[in-house]
UniProtKB/TrEMBL annotation, chain B:
Pfam families: CO_deh_flav_C (PF03450), FAD_binding_5 (PF00941). It comes from the Bacteria. InterPro entries: CO_DH_flav_C, CO_DH_flav_C_dom_sf, Diverse_Substr_Oxidored, FAD-bd_PCMH, FAD-bd_PCMH-like_sf, FAD-bd_PCMH_sub1, FAD-bd_PCMH_sub2, Mopterin_DH_FAD-bd. PROSITE patterns: FAD_PCMH. Residues 2-218 form the FAD-binding PCMH-type domain. One of its GO terms (molecular function) is oxidoreductase activity. This is FAD binding domain-containing protein.
Length: 826, 338
């Protein structure tokens, strides 16, 4: 399929297949208001409902599942970065006692991929391996050790091919074709979009800054490696337990690759130990375990080693970004021009979306009169990149927020003031046509400025210490499903029973972010239950209605809305029952903390919620309800204009304070002030956890993590991961985490459940540029390339007149601050 | 997850049983105490022994005795116990510091002083899984014939990575070594040899049975500085140990060891000349720092890159010396007024 056709297939605002879109019910009391006049649980500090089970080791993860007669399987992986597979001889392995089956690419030839237009992966490479670690064959045996020993007995006849290891090589050598599904050469996807007259804007600017930025790439490092267990029963039903964050998409792709009807497949997501986007598409292990279970008639488990998690990857893309940005003398943005090259690794994954996101998600919270981006994703012989927390937009945000810092200096403005002069109001439209509703960004800026003591610190701290600011926005889910259809994005079924208990069924994936607790909280709030009274059944394709999964920060907004509607329908029935019984009005009925009463005479007109359920069941029959969420039609009226469109956007600002050691290049982050507009914090503890976790993750990517590969050398080929282990790929220990101060800003989004928006990914974005800007304040060096490792800092310090720049930056700001102070005094 | 290879488990209860086993099967045996180094290395197939000899039940190797001639420490004493032992804390504070900087608390509760001394050398091309090393084409330390750090090199340059060894050298410590047939004592400094494949003098059948720190080292001032990216877990990318006796404002018996660069810790030579009249002032510190940098040549066996690690040698030497004098790592921050 040509690139052009692929693009045509993407639904845009204009070409949506149906004008008849489901719209959520309109509640007279509104979506943001508490059902009882005030909240009883929402906004309070509660535990995650599964927290205790996790803390005590009782939670069942995929690797805890052990079925009778279960086999263990292992994958054989390519030792070459790029090689044709001429032949595979598994006869010796198959003859080993205890080895039950060996499969290769020929057994699973169907191509798959998370984006229907770019299906370019096979569970096991059939003709070619495209990176060191690409899966080639799988062995099922009685034990893990035996399976591993059998792998070593498999002979693969490789024909090594020249490899492509960087963006430049990929572009320079189209003949070294990494991925045969590409439209041309090594181009995975290109997007050029322009809004307004960029060149005129730049020409009319009082100051312009042009710079190149490099984001090196990083991986997710969830503490739980990928794991699955497959069981194929005698009735022909395939059950797969998998550590996935997208059970529904996995369900569809299993059917496609295994050539089974979807109704013969059940996917269950057990408790997941972290994902961060690294489990948001199907992986080789799921197809291989299922196929091996079908062949052997025995359950099969595959647990990736930590090294294999590095090869499965789908981490943040390396990006080389050149930005030209202009401002007026007053500090108003005039135009933004971006040219972005993206290293995608060997396959497409979400790359089509990544390429759009690299440009589409930059257009708030600042107003841009003109904007243009030109993004190209290329294939290289490395593990495939994909979505990591803040998919596609963390890298451009890093570059752009550093640009703003430089522009502020160029026109002599405090960088917070420069941002204030470009704020986009609530209920407005971005230059690329995205609808922005609630917007708490101005409050975020105010909050971090005040809390951090910014005015006493910026350009005033001694050499080596500094502060930096950055802002960002992010989506609360995207407005279209990955495969075009007109069905809701999220569904919830709710069942109440006579014991006073609610069970909520939903396809949502709790990957630690708390969607199970979210479901429970909303049901409790609406029906007056306590958290002990609610059971959550989630992410089981046999039992739960479809939710598209845990990606794009969609769960709180979409699952939350679906759940709120399901619960409110039953709440109204129960209130009706009580109103009839007591002879009061329906809106005089209160349900809270297990008790029902009227506001008219709470002492007399009172019952337990359990009794209320029973009276309602007697009145209308068995109690159940459904809710769903479907996005409104959103986005710009151009091809790709729906990508980046979201029903609501979250906003974040960070101030980072650092203490740098100019002798060693070590950067110590002393404290981070994070203000995040999540609409309404349904669970403040969960929101703060996401804010801190995001900031921690961003800082780690900037300071410690190195997702790099060894180049070819005299005695070895290219493409070896530098250190695919948690010893060599350094994520922070508890001792390396700075102090965080999380400030929640609540803008009450009119379409969110009780006004809520996302909190899981947005708060990551500013951490990297705020850190870079703080290092500039501390040392006078611009960290335009990640990582900001000690050797890199020392190189920058050695490279020139850093110390002079540091000194020169001071008086300007200090003089200006003095002027402002004098003005205020008058 | 990564599997352990197949092996036979041997668990002697006495030193005699251990030495008997080694006398017969040394070449096919790997000794394990806390397992913090051996277990991951087994999972990476860096060792494929027929016998895994667990020495953790040989109780006679677990002791700390403070005697007139010095401190006697059994090899099975854990790094955590060593670090918190009151005599070590009082008389050999630098040893407490070095032991406390190994890995993390859980690993220090398992890892032993004997294991830390006998720690296998480390290299970015060696401490990897079997699969990774197969894709590499292996290396001369294990399963292969070439060196990837020094492509023409015939000798392994994997890095000595023990935190405690450099400090023990500055304290003139010795190790007692026993085999079925003999007992010998060697200074810790001579315990190590410049061969990354096997970087100590232990012959097949020999076991470290005691670490001894002489009484004359008790009063020494000292410092230990470790370059590592994180506050825990990481092996040293560069380590510097210093100790000296101090009398009447002058220092004597100065020892400076720089390690984690090559297979053997390097004792910096010529200290007496650099310490004119035993005065350890800023100028002397600077002379020693520069001399150390001249004597050390890092290679790209472990991260970070060799130029950076070389540039850090004088910085960390300065800091170790300042630590010994009770000074902060850096001179006071300059205050710049705008």
């Amino acid at each position: 399929m040509s690139d052009r056709k692929r693009d045509m297939a993407i639904p845009s605002g204009r070409t949506m297949p149906s004008e008849e879109r489901l719209t959520p019910p309109v509640w007279p009391e509104g979506r943001t208001a508490p059902p009882n006049g005030r909240f009883s649980l929402i906004g309070t500090r509660t535990r995650k409902i599964e927290g205790l089970a996790k803390a005590t080791g009782q939670a069942i993860y995929a690797d805890d599942i052990r079925l009778p007669r279960m086999l263990h399987a292992k994958l054989l992986r390519s030792i070459h970065a790029h090689a044709r597979i001429r032949a595979i001889d598994a006869s010796v392995a198959l003859a080993m006692p205890g080895v039950h089956a060996v499969i290769t690419g020929k057994d699973l030839p169907e191509f798959y991929g998370i984006i229907p237009w770019t299906q370019d992966e096979q569970a096991l490479c059939e003709e070619k391996a495209r990176y060191v670690g690409d899966a080639i064959a799988a062995v099922a045996a009685e034990t893990e050790l035996l399976a591993e020993e059998a792998l070593r007995a498999i002979r693969v006849d490789y024909e090594p091919l020249p490899a492509v290891m960087s963006i430049d090589e990929a572009l320079a050598h189209p003949e070294r074709r990494v991925n045969e599904k590409s439209a041309e050469g090594n181009i995975s996807k290109q997007v050029h979009l322009a809004f307004g007259d960029v060149e005129a804007g730049l020409a009319a600017s009082a100051a312009t800054v042009e710079a190149e930025y490099w984001y090196e790439g990083s991986t997710h490092t969830p503490i739980e490696p990928h794991c699955c267990v497959a069981d194929f029963d005698s009735a022909g039903l395939l059950t797969l337990w998998s550590s996935t964050q997208v059970a529904h998409y996995l369900h569809r792709d299993l059917a496609r690759v295994l050539k089974l009807p979807t109704e013969r497949i059940r996917v269950i997501q057990p408790v997941v130990g972290g994902a961060f986007g690294g489990k948001s598409e199907p992986f080789s292990l799921e197809f291989c375990a299922a196929k091996l279970a079908m062949i052997t008639g025995r359950p099969v488990k595959i647990l990736y080693t930590r090294e294999e998690v590095f090869y499965a990857h789908r981490g943040r893309h390396p990006m080389r970004m050149r930005y030209r940005t202009g401002v007026t003398r007053e500090g108003k943005l005039t135009a933004v021009d971006a040219k972005i090259a993206i290293d995608g690794g060997a396959y497409s994954s979400f790359g089509l979306v990544t390429t759009y996101y690299s440009g589409q998600l930059l257009t708030a919270p600042y107003e841009m009169p003109a904007y243009r981006f030109d993004s190209t994703r290329v294939f290289t012989n490395k593990p495939c990149c994909g979505p990591k927390r803040g998919h596609g937009s963390v890298q451009p945000r890093f570059a752009f927020e550093c640009q703003l810092d430089k522009l502020a200096e160029a026109v002599g403005l405090d960088p917070i003031e420069l941002r204030r002069r470009n704020l986009m109001p609530a209920n407005s439209r971005t230059v690329n046509g995205m609808r922005v509703t609630s917007n708490g960004f101005p409050l975020c800026l105010d909050a971090v400025e005040r809390a951090s003591g910014w005015r006493d610190k910026f350009r005033r701290l001694p050499y080596g210490r500094g502060v930096g600011i950055a802002g960002s926005m992010y989506i609360s889910g995207t407005n279209y499903c990955i495969y075009p259809n007109e069905m809701p994005q999220s569904g919830v079924q709710l069942k109440l029973d006579r014991s006073g208990r609610a069970t909520v069924f939903c396809g949502a994936s709790d990957i630690g972010q708390g969607s199970d607790s979210l479901l429970a909280l909303i049901v409790c709030e609406e029906l007056g239950l306590t958290l002990r009274d609610v059971r959550v059944v989630a992410a089981d394709t046999d039992l739960t209605p479809v939710d598209l999964g845990s990606y794009s920060s969609r769960e709180t907004f979409m699952v939350g809305n679906a759940c709120l509607d399901a619960a409110r329908k039953l709440r109204h029935e129960i209130a009706e029952t009580l109103a009839r019984r007591w002879g009061c009005a329906r809106d005089q009925v209160v349900l809270a903390n297990g008790v029902a009463c009227s506001t008219r005479d709470a002492a007399k007109e009172t019952a337990s919620v359990r009794e209320a359920f029973q009276w309602t069941e007697a009145r209308i029959g068995t109690l159940g309800s459904v809710g769903w969420y479907q996005t409104p039609k959103l986005g710009g009226d151009y091809r790709g204009g729906t990508i980046g469109a979201s029903p609501a956007y979250s906003f974040t600002a960070h101030v980072v304070e650092v203490d740098c050691d100019p002798e060693t290049g070590f950067v110590e982050v002393k404290k981070v002030w994070i203000a995040h507009d999540c609409g309404r914090a349904l669970s403040p503890v969960a929101v703060e956890g996401q804010m801190e976790g995001s900031a921690y993750m961003g800082l780690a990517e900037a300071l410690l993590e190195e997702q790099v590969f060894k180049p070819a050398a005299p005695h070895h080929g290219p493409g070896l991961h530098h250190g695919p282990s948690l010893l060599d790929y350094r994520i922070p220990t508890s001792l390396d985490v700075p102090e965080f101060m999380s400030i929640i800003i609540e803008s009450l989004d009119p379409e969110g459940p009780y006004g809520a928006k996302e909190a899981g990914e947005g708060p990551l974005h500013p951490s990297i540029p705020a850190l870079a800007n703080a290092i500039y304040d501390a040392l006078g060096i611009r960290c335009d390339a990640l990582p900001f490792s000690p050797p890199r800092i020392m190189q920058l310090l050695a490279a020139g007149d850093a110390r002079a720049r540091w000194a020169a930056a001071r008086p300007k700001v200090l003089a200006r601050a003095a002027m402002t102070d004098a003005k205020r005094a008058r | 997850m990564l599997t352990l290879p197949r092996f036979e488990w041997v668990e002697p209860r006495t030193l005699d049983q251990l030495l008997d086993h080694l006398a017969a099967h040394a070449a096919e045996s790997l000794m394990v105490a806390g397992g913090t180094d051996a277990v991951p290395n087994l999972k990476h197939r860096l060792h494929e022994p027929r016998y895994l000899v667990h020495i953790g039940r040989v109780e006679e190797l677990r002791f700390v005795r403070d005697e007139a001639d010095g401190l006697h420490v059994g090899p099975l004493v854990t790094l955590a116990d060593l670090a918190r032992h009151p005599v070590v804390r009082r008389d050999f504070a630098t040893l407490t510091r070095a032991a406390s900087l190994v890995a993390g608390p859980q690993l220090r509760n398992m890892g032993t002083i004997g294991g830390n001394l006998c720690l296998d050398t480390r290299c970015t091309y060696y401490n990897q899984t079997f699969f990774w090393r197969e894709a590499l084409g292996f290396c001369l330390k294990k399963d292969g014939a070439v060196c990837h750090v020094v492509p023409q090199g015939k000798r392994c340059v994997a890095a000595h990575s023990s935190d405690t060894a450099p400090v023990l050298i500055t304290l003139d410590a010795e190790v007692e070594i026993r085999s079925r047939a003999a007992r010998r004592t060697v200074p810790v400094e001579s315990f190590f040899v410049a061969d990354g494949i096997h970087n100590n003098v232990l012959a097949p059948g020999e076991v470290v049975t005691r670490v001894f720190v002489p009484a004359r080292a008790r009063a020494r001032i000292g410092g230990y500085q470790k370059l590592r990216p994180r506050g825990a877990i990481d092996f040293p990318m560069l380590s510097v140990a210093f100790a000296a006796s101090r009398r009447d404002g002058h220092v004597a018996d100065a020892r400076l060891v720089v390690s984690a660069l090559a297979a053997k810790p390097r004792s910096v030579t010529g200290l007496d000349a650099l310490l004119a009249d035993g005065v350890l002032d800023d100028a002397a510190i600077e002379r020693i720092a520069q001399a150390a940098a001249k004597q050390c040549r890092p290679v790209i066996n472990i991260p970070y890159d060799e130029d950076y690690r070389h540039a850090m040698v004088p910085v960390f030497v300065r800091r170790a010396l300042r630590e010994a004098l009770g000074l902060p790592p850096r001179a006071a921050r300059e205050v710049v007024t705008a």
